[in-house]
Design a protein that fits this description.
Helix content: 40-55%
Structural class: alpha/beta
Order of helices and strands: EHEHHHEEEEHHEEHEHHHHH
CATH superfamily: P-loop containing nucleotide triphosphate hydrolases
CATH architecture: 3-Layer(aba) Sandwich
Strand content: 5-15%
Number of strands: 9
CATH class: Alpha Beta
Number of helices: 12
Shape: globular
């Protein structure tokens, strides 16, 4: 089946890691794939170059409402051909001014990566250069969005809980779910299930090689040597830590409580807290 296979997530949740894993899995080479030369998953749904290609000119003078009218054409362009194509997105699966951000008629399937917001919000804060408190407010805001820049067309993220609900609230549409924490703690099982979702034949050696070649140590080492073209700014370290539970030495009890109060239902549903609100990791 042709069409877009969306790699969807809230920002700083492991989307780039999954893309690098896919690169290593499909290329299946002894040496790790170069993080600045990703070719298997090379498209973002908000790519300025794609919009320029479809519009036929630059978009500096265009308002978001005008740019949004070209999303369907961009996604149809990506979906054309006889084979499915991976496309990264941070957009919520919702409408903007009556038009979808994600066009399901161009879609063959989707993978959704979820990461606990306690760790995610720390990377989110660093990426967007805002305080932890402002980041906690942002990921709770149903209208949260990222504005258009030279690096990307605007995206509506919504809040962390709302974003997840948007992708799992469509009838007869069931994205494959991956928890970041499972990717870290049980990569063979988690990436193995992802490979099965893609319909790939079982190949344990190939799977282990792809996991090793896309490990945090490997991609962090590459970034140190060559940089990473997807950094939002030159001084940023994109692959910061990758650990689970790093928030414990960073966020205050009040900040953790604020996140739980905003997202408790989904946190419990996805196994991040107990029914009484106690953290499970």
């Amino acid at each position: 089946m042709s069409g877009i296979i969306w790699l969807a997530s809230y920002p700083k949740s492991g989307n780039t890691w999954l893309r690098i894993f896919i690169e290593n899995l499909f290329k299946n080479t002894a040496e790790p794939a170069k993080i600045n030369e990703l070719g298997v998953v090379k498209h973002n749904d908000n790519s300025p170059n794609l919009f320029k290609q479809i519009i036929g000119r630059g978009f500096d003078a265009m308002k978001d409402s005008e740019l949004h009218q070209y999303r369907e054409a961009v996604q149809r362009h990506l979906a054309k051909g006889n084979e499915s194509v991976f496309v990264k997105t941070h957009s919520a699966l919702q409408n903007f001014e009556g038009r979808p951000l994600i066009h399901l008629e161009c879609t063959a399937g989707a993978v959704y990566i979820i990461r606990n917001p306690f760790d995610m919000v720390i990377s989110f804060s660093d990426h967007y250069q805002i305080s932890y408190d402002d980041a906690i407010e942002a990921i709770a805001a149903p209208s949260h969005r990222v504005n258009t820049t030279n690096q990307g067309i605007f995206q509506i993220l919504s809040g962390w809980s709302n974003h997840y609900r948007s992708w799992f609230g469509v009838n007869n549409f069931n994205p494959h779910l991956m928890r970041y924490e499972d990717m870290v703690r049980n990569p063979i099982k988690t990436f193995g299930r992802f490979s099965q979702f893609l319909g790939l034949p079982k190949n344990p050696e190939r799977l282990r090689r792809a996991i090793k070649n896309s490990s945090f140590d490997e991609v962090s080492k590459q970034e140190t040597v060559t940089g990473f073209s997807e950094r939002s700014r030159p001084d940023q370290k994109f692959f910061r830590s990758g650990k689970v539970g790093g928030y414990k030495s960073i966020l205050s009890e009040a900040q953790v409580t604020k996140i739980i109060n905003a997202h408790g239902e989904l946190l419990f549903e996805k196994g991040y807290i107990t029914k009484s609100g106690r953290l499970k990791f």
